[in-house]
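Hi team, as promised in this morning's meeting, here are the two structures we talked about. I've kept the exact order from the run log so nobody has to guess. The first one is mostly here for context; it's the second one we should focus on when we meet again. Sequence first, then the predicted structure tokens.
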Amino acid sequence: MSGIARERGLSVCVAESLTSGRLANTVGAAEAASTWFAGGIVAYLTEVKERVLGLTPGTDPCSATCAEQLAAGALALFDADICVSTTGVGGPGPEGGHPAGTVYLGWATAEGRGHRALALVGDPEQVLEQATAAAVRLLVLHLEAVRPAGPRRHDGASASQRPGASPIRRGAPGADAAAIASSISAS
């Protein structure tokens, strides 16, 4: 992962619910992460997912749609080249009508987004470990397919001057993350 990101000049970010920082910890421990890992966000409460990452209100937090929207929202927030997200039910019991071990991984790039559904088996610790490992594999898979950053990052413009730049980074009060995420993912 580190070699691909550094060689191609790509930036990576993660958005987590289920894994509660484990994915960011794993990615951030990779070699020279300070040169390619833009960061990660942990959003457990649905309201936070909606406000910060642009999750459409009423979306099932344990769904493919949620995983994709979390990834797209964090991609915009961090202005990264690729984002992978995690959401689901760790267990030990079912939640919201979903059995324990139901996990959705989302991914987003400037070219598109998608998801992977998993049905993991084990206690909560095992589910989190398996989800984190699967998310890293998904990240590497999609990292290999991402086109290197173009002029949007290398034209000398600051983040606030680039089209589609997030006003959240500029500190705009009341910034609408949903509008930002949808405008970025549509481009």
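And here is the second protein, the one for discussion:
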Amino acid sequence: MHATPPHATPPHAKPPAQPLGRGHGPGTRTRTRTRRVTAVAAATLAVAAVTPVTLAYASPSATVSPSTVAPGGRVALNLEGCGTKTGRASSTAFGEVLLTPGNLQATNLFANATISRNASTGTHRVLFECGNPRGEQVTISIQVISGAARGGIGGSFASMSTGQIAAGGALAAGALGTGVWLLRRRSAA
């Protein structure tokens, strides 16, 4: 019979357990790193979830594009920061139109309007209203110029710079690429 020395561990005995997270084993660093990444991701999501809400309702702003147009031409109306799902825009140049949400959060409302064929040349005020007629209001101006409205693409892009056209094209291409990626990802799953 062989005796085991007092300082040696028998071959069938297990080493003493160390408390979780305090050891220096190979899995400890991975668990710690995973916890940190999870905490950072959670904090980022919390900030991202709150940020659009606080920015969306700060103060309404509006745009009319193009801002210079001939009678019979079309303009795009956009109102941001209302916090409502309805709105309206009115002007002596085109009458009154209802604005509808541009996204699920209703951070922007939009519509298109046609300038009246008998609209007088000069500056016309456009009044944007959030929600009901007593909601927040924004007023901007458009310029009606003499001449016939251009048809086709030329009329849409006449008052836009090359940079604006390029930026719009890049945004449209990005949206298309994202849509294709999401559809492929869904079909792969």
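Starting points for discussion:
Residues 33 and 39 are 10 Å apart (CA to CA).
The first helix runs from residue 26 to 56.
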